[in-house]
Amino acid sequence: MENKKNSQKERKTRILAVGDVHGDLTMINRLADRAKKENVDIIILSGDLTFAERSIKGIIGPFAKQKKPILIIPGNHESVATNALLAELYSPYSKNLHGYYIVKDGIGFFGAGTANMGPHQIKDSEIYDLLKRSHEKIKNLSKKIMVTHIHPENSKMEFSGFKGSKAVKKAIESFQPDIAICSHIHEAAGLEEKIGKTRVINVARKEKVFEI
């Protein structure tokens, strides 16, 4: 009985996170295969699911077949409405995290998409308000993951010349999630850093599988 309790206590949630798939169906199917092989519990798609909204066909379906939660936010290549539509089409597996939250295995996930540039940009102040609102309901949980499309201001990811978001930086410092997922800057794919206690991971077109 004691060993069983210990194994349940030690079980971690396995997550695959990626962004900027831009409707690349070859990439999407490869990622869905990897998620299945590695038996991930949750899939995070951190924006720019399409390329200028040319097509939404085949973006979510390969992941939804696994009947695992898929958390999505919009990037600057798709509208908030398109993101909400994708969540609705593939419900109950696909979840809109843009200004919302979910709790899975005791972990609180909250997020806000889009960026301060591109065809579907929103104001930085709106990004912070969405993050604050979505964080409010899970603020007392011991494990939290924040998902955004754009990277934080004054981070290593600004090396490419694209300035990050003051709102994302402020949210990391204020809410102190264990992990902050972002994408947007393709050249920064795979880059990680710490801001306070928060592990910040850029998953732009370079997926990351991790446990928490």
Describe this structure in words.
This protein is an alpha/beta fold. It has one domain (11-211): Metallo-dependent phosphatases (Purple Acid Phosphatase, chain A, domain 2, 4-Layer Sandwich), CATH 3.60.21.10. Strands 5-6-7-8-10-9 form a six-stranded mixed sheet. The chain has a five-stranded mixed sheet with strand order 4-3-2-1-11, with helices on one face. It is 28% helix and 24% strand. It is built from six helices and eleven strands. The two termini are 24 Å apart. It has helices at residues 2-10, 25-37, 61-64, 80-89, 124-136, 166-175; strands at residues 14-18, 42-46, 70-73, 94-96, 101-104, 107-112, 143-148, 179-182, 192-195, 198-202, 208-211.
Would you spell out the secondary-structure blueprint of this structure?
Layout: H1 2-10, E1 14-18, H2 25-37, E2 42-46, H3 61-64, E3 70-73, H4 80-89, E4 94-96, E5 101-104, E6 107-112, H5 124-136, E7 143-148, H6 166-175, E8 179-182, E9 192-195, E10 198-202, E11 208-211
Parallel strand pairs: 1-2, 2-3, 3-4, 6-7, 7-8, 8-10
Antiparallel strand pairs: 1-11, 5-6, 9-10
Helix pairs in contact: 5-6
